[in-house]
UniProtKB/TrEMBL annotation:
Keywords: DNA-binding. It comes from Paenibacillus arenosi. This is MerR family transcriptional regulator. InterPro entries: AraC_E-bd (IPR010499), DNA-bd_dom_put_sf (IPR009061), GyrI-like (IPR029442), MerR-type_HTH_dom (IPR000551), MerR_fam (IPR047057), Reg_factor_effector_dom_sf (IPR011256). It comes from the Bacteria.
Length: 271
């Protein structure tokens, strides 16, 4: 048998780490002197230690390693843990590849300076569920301000208000005067719904392409076109059944109540 200091030199693992593994019941010494407290290890325990180090290098936590090295652990459970780790790493690789693709795209924009490139930064983000009250109607985008006025009048009956606006663009099948528009205000507390004004949660979107710009809610703009170009150039596609969202916040410095800092949001997935 080897003293802990000797076993440390042979294995190239520090004494402090070996003691910690002992505390976790991950690698117990073969013998501990009851009088001196000295720990002793055998050469066979090198195999166990090397497996711990191999699992650790693969990214498993010490608790996961302890579970996998239990004597009664079925082999299928170990396979399952490896599959989960494989999926976790693959997801990380996919995210990093997407980031690399965006870096390459940005470099192309820099190198091709002067060409017709989008003028705003596009960010991919995860959007959490949000409680809102909304009003949906087929009308012209020129009537958005009036839709919000009706929504705010109803919301004011319950002593609630919000400075931010959300516009959901569901579609335009026939003409620009019959756009399927939904206006919404975020809520901190629920209020009663009515036949026109509905309280609901906007669903979570795990991959949302977003672009921030200055706009007027009652005027058309090119932000959605720029965002669509970015989606196409970067190997994404618009996710079906998800309306385009536009989050609007007042722009105090401009002094115009109808001018907002707006974030266009389009749900996307890899093409």
């Amino acid at each position: 048998m080897f003293k802990i200091s000797e076993f440390s030199k042979i294995s190239q693992v520090s004494v402090k780490t070996l003691r910690y593994y002992d505390q976790l019941n991950l690698l117990k010494p073969t013998h501990t002197d009851k009088y001196t407290g000295y720990r002793y290890y055998t050469a066979d325990q090198m195999f166990q230690l090397n497996r711990i180090l191999a699992y650790k290098e693969l990214g498993f936590s010490l608790e996961q390693i302890r579970q996998m090295m239990g004597e009664q652990v079925p082999i299928e459970q170990i396979r399952g843990m490896f599959r989960l780790k494989q999926n976790e790493i693959q997801s990380m690789l996919d995210k990093e590849q997407a980031r690399l693709d965006r870096i390459k795209q940005r470099l192309c924009c820099i190198e091709r300076e002067g060409e017709n490139q989008t003028s705003h930064d596009v960010i991919l983000k995860e959007v959490e569920p949000q409680l809102v009250i909304s009003y949906r109607l087929r009308t012209s985008y020129r009537h958005i301000a009036e839709l919000f006025k009706q929504l705010d009048d109803y919301l004011g009956k319950f002593g609630q208000s919000s400075s931010s606006k959300i516009v959901l663009w569901h579609g335009c099948e026939n003409s620009e005067d019959e756009i399927d528009i939904e206006v919404a205000r975020p809520l901190t507390n629920e209020v009663p719904s009515s036949s026109l004004f509905i309280v609901k949660r906007l669903p979570e979107v795990t991959s949302m392409a977003t672009l921030t710009h200055i706009c007027r809610t009652a005027s058309s703009c090119t932000a959605s076109t720029e965002l669509a170009l970015w989606i196409e150039r970067n190997g994404y596609r618009i996710k079906g059944n998800e309306p385009r969202r536009e989050l609007c916040l007042p722009h105090e410095k401009l002094g115009d109540p109808d001018t907002y800092v707006a974030e266009v949001q389009i749900a996307v997935e890899r093409a």
